[in-house]
Design goal:
two-stranded antiparallel sheet; alpha+beta; single chain
Length: 239
């Protein structure tokens, strides 16, 4: 009668057994490969984790936009007196409280347009909301750039507006808009050309990325149009 065989203990490896030694060798290799793979995966996860950054909280006090319109798109009533069109700025309040632009309080989510004019009833220089009075539909084929500006940049913007309250043939609306923009948004400076014109500013705006075409802006009544006087006081404009 054949003797009963001892049940094989799969959890035990006899070190004197050749097959066991081979299996042990493969086991070491397998463990080494598993360890290497685990280390590699851990490194990948760490690298990916390092790339994850918290969402930045916007510190925009306002959005500043520079706009230029070709002369062929303007009727005589909205022509600023500049050679070949009109250029101006739009400031949108992005804060949760009102902001002040050139002495005018702009409510939350409100806008104000700022530009110089050479042919209006209250003299040559800066007017607030004259473009908004005519409305965006009066300025077809307009192009623009926009930038988030901080509270500090808003202060700079106000200083530049006040210090550039003038208009002449060679220091026209495109001169004003480009000068103020460049003083605030230093990483995307524009040029209105050797002889400053709205058409020259259009070419410069289109060389930047991204630029926008026919972006809409608000309309206001005549009672919201102001002339910034040389003493920095606001005067309701005579339309």
């Amino acid at each position: 009668m054949e003797a009963l065989k001892k049940p094989s203990n799969r959890c035990f490896i006899d070190p004197s057994n050749k097959e066991a030694k081979v299996n042990k060798k493969f086991l070491k290799i397998a463990l080494a490969l598993i360890s290497a793979l685990a280390a590699s995966l851990a490194g990948t996860v760490s690298a990916q984790a390092a790339e994850i950054k918290p969402l930045a909280i916007s510190n925009c006090a306002a959005t500043l936009r520079i706009v230029s319109v070709p002369g062929s798109s303007l009727s005589s009533v909205v022509f600023s007196g500049a050679p070949g069109g009109h250029s101006f700025l739009i400031i949108n309040n992005d804060r949760t409280t009102s902001i002040t632009v050139a002495g005018l309080a702009v409510p939350v989510d409100g806008q104000v347009t700022v530009g110089t004019w050479g042919n209006k009833n209250n003299g040559k220089g800066i007017y607030l909301n004259y473009e908004a009075y005519f409305g965006s539909s009066s300025y077809s084929n307009r192009v623009s750039l926009e930038a988030c500006i901080t509270t500090s940049q808003l202060t700079t913007l106000n200083s530049l507006i006040i210090s550039n309250n003038s208009w002449s043939d060679l220091n026209n609306c495109s001169s004003f808009a480009s000068k103020v923009w460049n003083g605030v948004v230093t990483d995307r400076k524009v040029s209105a050309g050797t002889v400053n014109t709205p058409n020259g500013l259009i070419s410069s705006i289109k060389s930047k990325s991204p630029f926008y075409t026919n972006t809409s802006f608000m309309s206001v009544s005549s009672s919201s149009v102001y002339r910034l006087q040389t003493n920095n006081a606001l005067l309701k404009a005579t339309i």
